[in-house]
Amino acid sequence: MRIFLQIVLLTFADINKIKVNFSKYTKEFSYNFKLAYPVILGMLGHTLIGIVDNIMVGNLGSTELAAVSLGSSFIFIAMSIGIGFSTAITPIIAVADAEKDEKKIRTIFHHGLLLCTVLGVVLFILIVLSKPIMYLMHQPQEVIDLASPYIDWVAFSLIPVIIYQGYKQFADGLSQTKYSMYAIFMTNVVHIFFNYVLIYGVWIFPKLGITGAALGTVISRFMMLVFMHYLLKNNKEINRYFKNFTFKEIKKSILRKIINLGMPSAMQMLFEVALFTAAIWLTGSIGKTSQAANQIALTLATITFMFAMGLNVTAMIRVSNQKGLKDFKNLIVIARSIFLLAIILEVIFAIAFVVFHNYLPHFFLNMNDTTQALDNSEVIAIASKLLLVAAVFQISDGIQVVVLGALRGLQDVKIPMYITFVAYWIVGFPISFYLGKYTELKSVGVWIGLLAGLTAAAIFLYIRFDKLTKKLVRDNPLTY
């Protein structure tokens, strides 16, 4: 009896210990979400631009939807480079903010904005010049014919998007995450209006179809930049950083510092986006219905991924702040609390995907169009299977992206760059290619490869974070 009581007491002691350890992380959830929710809503609003394109164009037919998918794949590659590069601004400013160094904040903001402007123009030119690649990708000719003018216009929108990112990352670094959310919300109002009238030819506007969707995106993204500039410049706490910009203050050493952080970050994002782009191209080579199904499943997975991206920014900000304060033990607790929150959210979304996998694809197609009935039924059948795989891989995707945010907060970008390359292109892509092209799994096989790559990235990035933070604690014992 005594032994039994001892076991019970020890069990309760262990449970209480677990509760204490768990509460150490969960008590950070409130502040994590306070920082993350504006980013999440802003990201969802940004994603809504693409979703609106997909839904409105999907009503025109599966060929038009496949063309948007193909055209968007080129834009996503360029945008990933621009967004990835701009993330270098946030951790540097967040560290300076923790150190109360206003001069450094202003300097990094001006240099970062200049680099984003130059990069936006360069990416626009490169995407327009890269269009002939479509003819080497074995895509359906009717899809290429529609995608070509779409790319021309949407590529032009890269300029305001990348400049906007310079503003956004600067504001995020100051923990002012709401402004990008406000700008995106206003942008979506503009986008939905111009998309609708230009795609379908409402009122005095011409019916432009897929080109109308491209024009709506261009107009809305320029307005997004205007909104963001206005909101930040008219904030009393932030407008002092806008004053006295001059090219005479631009220094090569500061540009080099941002580039050294920005380029590996850009490559990290490029490797992942390029993997998903390759999946679009692979499914396109299988057939237009597979490509349209891929676009539907990818759009839905992107929506849930935005929650993890919000936590990615939160990890960047909070880890950078703790790095500036040199409080490395608390840094670990905060980072792990963000990882845990990401896992909980992604598991909830995974369950939703499994439960509703047969119903969600219907929202992206015009089921009343009898001429498209055969194609639509095939698209839905494929997309529903892809969502089952997406339910699992988004958990790995959520983990890897928040850990990447924490590593960027530590300004550790080179080793993670190599890790992501190996995970996505040595592990993930070969599996996608083989299962998609040489087995009966086809599109589902492509997504199984995505799952493998994301899982490998999540595991090895966390190992890198754990090793690095333990070393920081060992090397800085006098900071506690």
Key terms:
disordered N terminus; 480 residues; globular
How would you portray this structure in words?
This protein has helices at 2-26, 29-58, 62-86, 89-98, 102-129, 141-156, 158-173, 178-200, 210-233, 252-286, 288-325, 328-356, 373-409, 414-438, 443-475. The two termini are 45 Å apart. By secondary structure, the protein is mainly alpha-helical. The longest helix has 38 residues, at 288-325. Mean pLDDT is 87; it is low at 3-18. The protein is globular, with a radius of gyration of 23 Å. Helix 12 packs antiparallel against helix 13. The protein is 82% helix and 0% strand.
In short:
The chain is mainly α. It has helices at residues 2-26, 29-58, 62-86, 89-98, 102-129, 141-156, 158-173, 178-200, 210-233, 252-286, 288-325, 328-356, 373-409, 414-438, 443-475.
Largest sheet: none
Number of strands: 0
- Note the run of SSEs as H and E: HHHHHHHHHHHHHHH
Mean pLDDT: 87
Shape: globular
Provide the low-confidence segments as ranges. 3-18
User: Could you give the distance between the termini?
Assistant: 45 Å
Helical content class: over 70%
Radius of gyration, taken over Cα atoms and rounded to an integer in Å:
23 Å
Task: Specify the number of helices.
Answer: 15
Could you tell me the strand content as a percent range?
under 5%
Protein structure class: mainly alpha
